[in-house]
Amino acid sequence: MKLKSLKKRENELANAKRQLEILSNGIFQDEELPTFRSKLKTLNLFPLQPKILEILQINVGYMCNQVCAHCHVDAGPDRKEIMTRETMQQCLDVIKDTGAHTLDLTGGAPEMNPLFRWFVEEATKVGVKDVIVRSNLTIITANKKYNDLPEFFKKHKVHVISSMPHWTEGKTDQQRGDGVFNASIKALKMLNAVGYGMPNSDLKLDLVYNPSGAFLPGNQAALEADFKKALSEKFNIHFHNLFSITNLPISRFLDYLIASENYEDYMYNLVEAFNPAAVKNVMCTNTLSVSWDGWLYDCDFNQMLELKVDSPIQHIRDFNKKTLSKRTICISQHCYGCTAGAGSSCQGTVVQ
Amino acid sequence: MSNTYYEPSDLRKFGTITEWSEELGKKFFDYYGSVFEEGALSAREKSLIALAVSHVVKCPYCIDAYTQDGLKRGITKEEMMEAVHAGAAIESGATLVHSVQMMNKYKKLSM
Ligand code: SF4
Ligand code: SF4
User: Fold this and answer.
1) Which end of chain A is more exposed for a tag (fewer CB within 10 A), N or C?
2) Does A329 contact ligand 2 (Cβ within 6 A)?
3) pTM
């Protein structure tokens, strides 16, 4: 079955308010499990506040060539939200004086925004140290017009981070769709061919692993070793680091958890694995997320839950670093996904 | 009281056994934790052994726990099923090897 976005299906979970309700009802309302807020309070870690802004994560649109079952963005070919040149320009103006060293471009498939290449070219000119593109890999082989992306990335020394849920075809396609594994392998080979991910190459290629089901990721280093061994032995593919990311209980993953009757157990697992050491480094403490229409959020997850930053400044056009640094981070029970075990962020675990 | 012998949510409460015998419970969990650390065998290998034994002792809690543990570690379903067969083979072998006793007794009792 070809999946559609929750929005297209008019599923109630396409509504952010409904998701937040679910995350506060049931086991959390009954106090069977502590809310994230009360958990932080008992440890004197409330409220969560940002530290120095290091990463600006920009979501350039929700359109995607894939419709992964776990997608927290509810992305897909049917999503039309896309960043305009005007908003991109506002982002570029801001990047120059935020002092952020990393620009993290995400989506959907960011490459599907027709202004993507222009934006990358301009962004690399403003002097950010690390420009990341979160590429789903299959976009590179999806259409002739994307086949030269590896060359384009290379030309601009873009840091490529790509998703790969498993080194076997079955588990990958189960999460990301039929044929995704083979297309991803082909794309990884194309990236390797221009130098990405090769040992000692400064063309960085990292992989993101997230579990294909209702379980938490295992040890990041052990998974990296297994991925490296399997991908190099079977396919002669190379990459640099593997980031293991916990699926947060929002959007399509929340829908899956509820439909498969795994929701309560999953929340128990997250709460049980709560690690106070991870709280200090959750990604909202050094990242700001910008949506396709220029609104500001503490992270990409809060963006999907429509929880705008709790600050007088809420839009990129009014950006003010000082005012924003004084805000308190908006939290709900989905945040347990960032603090379980070794923690989870877009750069992988947060506790050594 | 639940009206079934096994309650899936009891697995989460495993830790509460220390409430009725703190010292022994704690000793058990410390021991358990140490057993599954990386050692001469990898934690991954031990997870598969635990999965096989879970089936042999037919513990539904352990089967749930070690299937989940295997998924976390990226263990494939083929590996999991082979581990269960290894356990099952030993279990059926243990039954069958006793038939030698049956054969001995048969022969001894027969003219
Ligand atoms: S490739 Fe990424 S953005 Fe696209 S549907 Fe999959 S998870 Fe979502
Ligand atoms: S979900 Fe967002 S706001 Fe919550 S802890 Fe994670 S990064 Fe921070």
Assistant:
1) N
2) yes
3) 0.91
Chain-chain contact of B43 with A223 (C-beta, under 8 angstroms): no
DSSP A248: P
Domain boundaries, chain B: 36-109
pLDDT digits (tens, 9 = 90+) for A284-296: 999 999 999 999 9
Q: Provide the residue type at A57 as one letter.
A: Q
Quote the CA–CA distance of A296 and A303 in Å, as a whole number: 8
Which residue in A40, A29, A31, A84 sits closest to A339, CA to CA?
A40
Task: Examine the predicted complex and report whether its ipTM is higher than 0.90.
Answer: no
Q: What domain range is A121 assigned to?
A: 50-248+281-330
Place A177 in a pLDDT band, splitting at 50, 70 and 90.
Answer: confident
Nearest ligand, measured from the Cα of A336 = 2
Q: What is the DSSP string of A98-145?
A: H--SEEEEESS-GGGSTTHHHHHHHHHHTT-SEEEEEE-SHHHHHSGG
CB-closest option in B12, B72, B76 to A217: B72
B72–A166 CB contact, under 8 Å: no
Amino acid type, A25: N
Cis peptide upstream of residue A47 (ω within 30 degrees of 0)? yes
Overall number of domains in chain A: 1
Contact between residue A112 and residue A81 where contact means Cβ atoms under 8 Å apart: no
The CATH fold assigned to B36-109 is AhpD-like (1.20.1290)
